[in-house]
Known about the structure:
6 helices; alpha+beta; globular; four-stranded mixed β-sheet
Amino acid sequence: MLKSHKHVFWEALLVTILIFGIGIFLGVVLENWRAGKISDLYSESDINLLDMNALEGTLNLKDINCGEAVIKNIEFGDKIYDDAQELERYEKANKFTDAIVQEHKRYDLLRTLFWINSIKIKEKCGHESFHTMVYLYDYNSDDISQISKQSVFARYLEELKKVYEDKIVLIPIARNMDLKSVELLTKNYDINGTSILVDEKLLVTELEDLEKITNYLSNLSVSS
């Protein structure tokens, strides 16, 4: 009887060790896969940065096709927005390691360049060619009320994009990543705290004022 109990004990122990070992192995494999995906995103953002610089150079050409420039700009904006959402999914699944923070910072720089290019295109091709929605927020905030506010702002903009599609470009940028270009732009437009800047002229900072954006876009649609 005693031997039987010992036998069951050792079997249970071996099964537990085996399950624990498999769990660790799968965890390591998953983390390596995520690290590889982040590395791929890092390489992709490098290419995007170069592509954005090249796009900026084309804006200085006299015979630029405005229709094509607007289309390419919107496509580029949608792409880096989708890439950033993918990075966000990895951020939620992992701790905020230096690699992820640096990659996020890189995307913020990319989106800042995109914002500057969008302003240049609208100046060259007309301000009604498309509309910019620049969303400035705090990255990795530990303030519960701030997190809640930013969540509402983000969902509102996502729904707005579904309605207006290629008429608007969403440009979310973390304003607390120590990027000099972001600091300069936010000071230029007098932006403090979580904000949405529409077409570089309508600034919304409070949840109760989100309706102003909808009204602004609706009035533009009627006038056009």
